[in-house]
Write the structure tokens for this entry.
Amino acid sequence: MGDQATYEAFVAQRRAQIMDRLGEAARVSGRDASEVCVLAVSKTVGVDEVVCAWHAGYRVFGENRPQELRRKAEGIAASGEMDGVRLDMIGNLQTNKINQVISSAYLVHSVSSLHLAEAISKRAASRDALVRILLEVNVSGEASKSGFSPVEAREALDRVMGLPSLSLEGVMTMAPAHDASAARATFSGLRELRDTMRADCGLPLDVLSCGMSDDFGIAVEEGSTLVRLGRIVFDPAYELDV
Ligand SMILES: *Cc1c(COP(=O)(O)O)cnc(C)c1O
């Protein structure tokens, strides 16, 4: 189909632009672009678009709703094309939806409370599973954002590390929108918090999940190891600023 081919060409061309910008951000901060995982947030698109993104080179996808994560996982399996694909859970998770997620998600970015961490560990234990998680931290302190405060995240470390069916891999945050300097402060704050937590607990906490379509260059400059890109990957109407 012509439309499909056009869309696939758009996704491939956009990916080249994204990788250019990522490479430049890595270069100015003395990092290697290969240190940064690019996760394509597929929450607004269907399996066909995900397959296009796979063809363009994306290997990691993220969903923010448990049911949709399940649906995508099934659709992807049915496509028969995406061997080795990784799906992450990046959105708010309610305890009654945990089962839908732990069988399909490689990494859960959005563990926003100790209560949720305990509930995930309990469900995982009953299935003999080990679930990789990040603690979601509200670094900017905006009332609209969920997650641990930085102080709470440090305080939660002992308890989280004591949960037998969780593997704590790092931290995640979201920056205030439309404010580059606040975004930078949020990302550097996340990195500093991670460094402190690493010293507290001795785990590597290698994953810094931060940076979205509008601010991923800044996030990479500040140390992000995983950017979560939605509109910029999939939406032809999203305008890249130059
Ligand atoms: C939607 C979403 C993104 C992607 O946002 P864009 O601005 O479209 O890149 C990243 N992280 C989370 C948690 C999201 O829900």
